[in-house]
Design brief:
heterodimer, A: 270 residues, alpha/beta, Rossmann fold, four-stranded antiparallel beta sheet, 24% strand, B: 389 residues, alpha+beta, six-stranded mixed beta barrel, 12 strands, elongated
Chain lengths: 270, 389
Amino acid sequence: MSALTTKTSVRMGNTGESLAVELRAVTKSFGAGATAVRALRGVDLSVAKSELVMLVGPSGCGKTTLVSIISGVLDADSGVAKLFGVDWSDLSVNERTIRRGGLVSFVFQQFNLIPTLSVIENVSVPLLIRGVRMREAMERAAAALASVKLADRTKALPSQLSGGQQQRVAIARALVGEPRLIVCDEPTASLDGHTGQIVMDLIHQTARSKTDEDHRRCVIVVTHDTRIFHYADRIVEMEDGLLKSTLSKHTMDEAAHTPRFAPEPEEPGT
Amino acid sequence: MAAVRQAGAHTLGGMYKIALWMLLRDRGKYLALVCGLSFATLLIAQQGSIFLGLVIRSTGVLQNVGQPDLWVVDPSTRYILETRPVGDQFVGRVRSVPGVAWAEPMFSNYANVEFRDGTFKRVQLIGIDRSTLIGQPPEMVEGSLEDLRAPDTVLVEESSRPKLNNAKIGDVLRLNDKRAVIVGFCRAKLGFESNAIVYTTFDNAVRFTPVGRERVTFILVGVKEGLDREVVAADIRKFTGLGAFTPEEMTSRTIGFILYETGIGINFGITVLLGFVVGLAVTAAIFYQFTLENLRHFAVLKAMGARNSVLVRMVLLQAGVVGLIGFGIGCGPAGLFSLQGRRPGAELAPYFPWQLLLLTFVGMMVCIGLGSLLSLRRVITLEPAVVFK
């Protein structure tokens, strides 16, 4: 079997850029004619490196479409969508795919782990896609699993784990390739309050774990879960394909009534 | 960024492993795929081998006679089993044609062997020249060929023994109500109808099976050394008005007749085609289903940076692996069946040359290739954005 090698000439962007994400007048429609749906109607958004931004808003307001365009899995119809200084529209499909693999990782609501692969194999996948040799990929996957406190479950199948553990595996998978942008789509929606808090702690730590300018991570979280709002540096509210309002960390800190996770129920008799 | 740049430095062999793990660990679908392909392979290979065996068996008489350079027959003969005897005088005429070194008559017809219990068996009676024994069976197993020169004697093809009540040397057969003494057993290829073969001399044969004035079924001809067989055959045709063919021509005419003039070619061809279609349908359906169920995972791989070319190779690898395993497993029983069919006297006549194996392999690869086309299309056109749905 002939070995494959991946292309190295893809522009990875100017890491000296101060912005991780830069969107200007981005539009996106689905369908055509009378049934066309305008998912984004001219969105402007900037996200700094190491910023943890939450996108909130009602279902169908365009949050998922927006993160799809930010992460390069979907093309904008018009406008500019830049990630670390490079406009996605300047890249070919292959270049975009390779760039995405190098810079972006994902955490999904339904985890999206491959059920026939063990936990460690799932986590190693992003590295294998990049051409890292199996042994090295496994070593790095094991380290990533240890960082999410799952070092003892590396051989388990996803179906043998709880929802929270599966999401931690997904986070390990997202972290293993040292991404610059982590896109989380409703990461706590399938989890109970306590597990959701653990998962958000991990994501929050991830955003803060790199301090040097070239490696700082930006995290964008799409969520409806008001219990995790306090983790955000900024909350961007969307409505009907447009950004409606932005709530900064400073503003949130001043709001004493910011919703928190419900405390764990006390056991009877304690 | 360092991690990104590693992409060019290493291979993507790990992705092939991922593809194999995805396939092999999904036991239910993997087994269904392998079973479908094995069955299709078995159907194609086994039916193909029986078809070839039947075609080859139809040339049994030709294969059993090694000596002649030319077969001379009635000019309207279409294949070796469709014969119309010619008169004895034609043997002399053929001998007189320039370029003919020798020419001997051969008799071939059916006869009945009757048993004490009133039942009978049809046999293929072959009569060869008493003095030269040209047309003799390829191999003697028991007894002596020379004993055939004695009056009322016959040789019986070894595998035909059970059909003749496990006859042995010295036994007397009632052949078309005539007495025939078994003096030996020989090995020869059975004909198309798998009748027992009984050899005797030409004189005995025409006595056992009276056929009127035209008694010579074939005239076996040897061509003088250094002469072109085709030229001599043309001369025989010209001077005698009979048909003259090289063994290769006669084989080709016989196979052509079986293929095109009987329903055998079409019937077996349909079965082989059905095997292919079943294999294709089963493979395409199960493999497409397998891909559909993994589509989300392929989308995740795409979102994580796997290019279309990598995913296509992953799918093709999965298809190739189940194809190879299915082919291997399917060929096993087909091969065993073929070996079983090689037993002397076996009623079925599978013939399993390497060309058939190669053809079956190509057929299965085409099958799996076509079967995976739908899957490939889905994977290639897959939008990675579906990971968010």
